[in-house]
Design brief:
Two copies of one chain form a homodimer.
Chain A lengths: L3 E7 L1 H4 L7 H11 L3 E8 L3 H12 L4 E5 L10 H9 L3 E3 L1 H10 L12 E3 L3 E3 L8 E6 L2 E6 L3 H20 L2 E9 L4 H8 L8 E6 L5 E8 L2 H18 L2 E5 L7
Protein name (chains A, B): Competence/damage-inducible protein A
InterPro entries (chains A, B): CinA, MoaB/Mog-like_dom_sf, MoaB/Mog_dom
Organism (chains A, B): Thermogladius calderae
Chain lengths: 254, 254
């Protein structure tokens, strides 16, 4: 069974079109890369009921839910509290989280005390860029991971603390290649690659560009096996289509 | 009661992080501009079950759901069929839709016949840029609007056919202003603007930049009343904070 992940983006500024959400795209690429099937991406406003509904709806179909946004110390930051309520956990001052804030913001730490409140049993994730720590909390064998919405903070925390942890969960990775064809009509290319869409652990997407491009994503247990699958699919594509160029991962040279 | 809208983005390429979804941001801004409260934005893969689940989940809390993506003629385009199933409607050849395709793609129209299949009772929306028509279908007093995922097609169709229709539904518009302050600490600004967050039909968002920026969004029955509310809120902000500059809509000069 492939491990499934979902992403919940919290912030009214996203729903009002004020801010373009780029976090979910970055996270989706990362999660796919370490072997997850990303099932749903949901954006909700800074409203407790919507965050709670959303988290529950994503947990229904996911082993891991990553939340971003609404973790700060301003009044509209309510993600931690909403997560606690959705999971039926307490919401309390986390001593370890406050120590992390104190280490970076000595005299100002008290201003940010709100960012140290988390669901009971949450394990804080250090924020080495901004103020608010993230956290990870286990729930019925699943993991909920909360990260700030500021992209530079979210990315640093994910890469340093979350990615290594999740990689060990999936036991697989994915790799992608881009094939540029000499075909000008997507309908024709779609017809020719249909058979490849039936293969397990292989995703083939035709893009409506001229000439038509194809993205291939494959999953494998490790770099070697993923590369072998990717090469096989690229071979299949090349036999069916008139291929102009192939862009593949450096790890799969040869 | 404010009219509520949601957006569902269909496409496995979004969930795998291959494509950055910019459609939902554009639509959220448009829908907010014509007076909607955007409640949820959801991205799901090209899987019938997920599209059906998603549409139902958004209809629960919305008067209008806008869907983008998966409307084409390739094998993985299954949005129309999934919408039909979610709403309990038939899925059938739409003569008016096929005529729209024929008008633009004479001899090739037969290749695109799949794009002419729609839920029973759907009203086609012409696509003057690409191949696939969109559609609008009424369901229990709500509207489901399906548009292609290619941004240039989606935008043209929304602005020309959908926006005028929806504008008449909400009977209101929204306007936004951006206030740049001379304050360097978001926690301080948050403290000072808290009272404004209690006002109905006013959204105030502080941004963690240095100096701190504030976005204000207000709703009103028409341009004049929205401008008046915006001016009042800008006045309130200016009394509370040290304001450096204000960027407001051209319509509200004075």
């Amino acid at each position: 069974m492939r491990a499934r992940a979902s992403i919940i983006v919290v912030g009214s500024e996203i729903l009002k079109g004020i801010t373009l959400d780029t976090n979910s795209n970055w996270l989706a690429k990362k999660l796919t890369g370490i072997g997850f099937e990303v099932a749903r991406i949901l954006a909700v406003p800074d409203e407790a009921g919507e965050i709670e509904w959303g988290l529950k709806a994503l947990l229904e179909c996911s082993d891991v839910v990553v939340a971003t946004g609404g973790l700060g110390f301003t009044e509209d930051d309510i993600t931690s509290q909403a997560i606690a309520r959705a999971l039926g956990l307490g919401y309390e001052f986390n001593n370890e989280a406050y120590k992390l804030i104190e280490q970076r913001h000595r005299e100002d730490a008290v201003k940010y005390v709100k960012a140290a409140y988390m669901p009971s049993g949450a394990k804080p994730i250090p924020n080495n860029v901004g103020v608010s720590p993230g956290f990870i909390v286990e729930w019925r064998g699943k993991k909920v991971i909360a990260l700030p919405g500021v992209p530079v903070e979210m990315k640093e925390m994910f890469e340093r603390y979350v990615e290594p942890l999740l990689q060990s969960l999936t036991g697989r990775i994915s790799m992608r290649a881009i094939v540029v064809t000499n075909h000008m009509v997507e309908a024709e290319v779609d017809e020719l690659v249909r058979g490849l869409r039936r293969m397990e652990d292989v995703y083939v997407k035709t893009h409506a560009e001229k000439p038509v491009k194809i993205t291939i994503v494959v999953y494998g247990g490790d770099v070697k096996s993923a590369c072998a699958i990717l090469e096989r699919v690229i071979g299949d594509v090349s036999r069916r289509l008139n291929v102009k160029s192939v862009e593949k991962p450096l790890e799969c040279s040869g």
